[in-house]
From TrEMBL:
GO terms for biological process: thiamine biosynthetic process; thiamine diphosphate biosynthetic process. 4-amino-2-methyl-5-(diphosphooxymethyl)pyrimidine binds at residues 35-39, 67, 105, 135. This is Thiamine-phosphate synthase. Its cofactor is Mg(2+).
Length: 209
């Protein structure tokens, strides 16, 4: 399966009190990958929430990805996203198996992406492309770099950082396959608006759900 579409990422603060309702609303609008991103060290809560997401994702035929934690991903039998300081890809691939989806943060460096491809990544992520209130300190990436990456890489390319319905189109035009979004999807006033945004992101990628 070619990885292409909306990549919804959860945020524990933004989704406090409406976590499952908003995630389900996004899944209803169409989500290719859902990342569980929780930077806390509350392992029991992380396991509980990730299990609930796995159940929801299985109902909507969406792939669940765990941020940072290959051990938790292995325990649940789902994919993982690893940043440059989250541990090496090769042992994660050995742990999760050949079919698991494994993503790698490459900031704005195509060389990191080529290395990740050699080590078995399923997709590479570049960003941040716009100002992000979720991760303000992330290093910046450009459309020029994205176009070069598209020309050099065979792997699906994910883009992240401050993406909204208003600014996403040039990213798709420059070769992005996966639009990874927190605030531009979940920073909505209602579940109906989350679903509408998810559908609109899919429309940008010309994906019918
Ligand atoms: C799809 C996607 N791309 C990039 C990141 C960032 O990963 P990382 O640099 O490890 O930062 P944290 O998210 O762990 O704070 C991501 N999570 N997902
Ligand atoms: C988790 C993350 N990683 C980034 C990177 O550039 O590596 S930007 C980011 C935050 C994405 O959230 P939002 O869509 O709200 O900006
Ligand atoms: Mg990380």
């Amino acid at each position: 399966m070619k990885l292409r579409g909306l990549y919804a990422i959860t945020d524990s603060q933004l989704l406090a009190g409406k976590f499952l309702a908003y995630v389900e609303a996004a899944l209803d609008g169409g989500v290719t990958l859902l990342q569980y991103r929780d930077k806390s060290s509350d392992e029991a809560r992380r396991l509980r929430e990730a299990e609930k997401l796995r159940e929801l994702c299985s109902r909507y035929k969406t792939q669940l990805i765990i941020n940072d934690d290959a051990e938790l991903a292995a325990r649940l039998g789902v994919g993982v996203h690893l940043g440059q300081t989250d541990g090496p890809l090769t042992p994660a691939r050995a742990l999760l198996g050949s079919k698991a989806i494994i993503g790698s943060t490459c900031h704005s460096q195509i060389e990191l992406a080529e290395q990740a491809a050699k080590e078995g990544a399923s997709y590479v992520a570049f960003g941040r492309f716009f100002n992000s209130s979720t991760k303000p300190g992330a290093p910046a990436a450009t459309l020029e770099m994205l176009a070069q990456a598209r020309a050099r890489l065979q792997l699906p390319i994910c883009v992240i950082g401050g993406i909204t319905l208003e600014n996403a189109e040039p990213l798709v035009a420059h070769g992005a396959d996966l639009l990874a979004v927190v605030h531009g999807l979940f920073g909505a006033d209602s579940t109906q608006e989350v679903t509408r945004r998810a559908r609109a992101f899919n429309d940008l990628l010309k994906i019918s759900v």
